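User: Show me a protein chain along with its predicted structure.
Assistant: Here is one chain, sequence first, then structure tokens.
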Amino acid sequence: MDFTDQHLAENLAAFEANQDPASIYQALELIEASERDIHIGDTAARQRAVERRLRFFAALDRAIDPSWNPENLPVRGAAPPPTDGIVYSSGEVDPATISDPAVRADYERALQASKDYERWYDAQFQLRQIDDRAMRFFALFLSEKYTHSAADRQEFEALLAASPVNPVRKERLRAIAP
């Protein structure tokens, strides 16, 4: 495992652990940097680059939730319960000022659920932006490093067949291949 593969694995593992899209973005930047100096005739380097991209896409696809709907925008906070507690200008109530422990617990859960949804929504939005960029740059890479020859097409198909990417992604990648 070389430097790039090691750091790629670390960034992908970090994303799996913390769900922070910054780790996926760093992995993409690492891949893009490693591809800059690949010469057109260097098929071994070209194959390593494609294998990295395919591992990246497989990890990205595991992170992207197909149920995400950009129209289901997060709502900040939660509806406050009827209380004589302190109400902030945002409309939120200070949970510590809610005297009923059951009502306080329900309100705290609702606030946490709202924050969790907002984080999830933002992560899903960012992952789709990363996906768009990754596909654009991979299309450019393929057009620069691969020809329309049968040998190049067979090489790409063999790499794709051996990869962990899902069938939908495979079709998307075939569509941008030369």
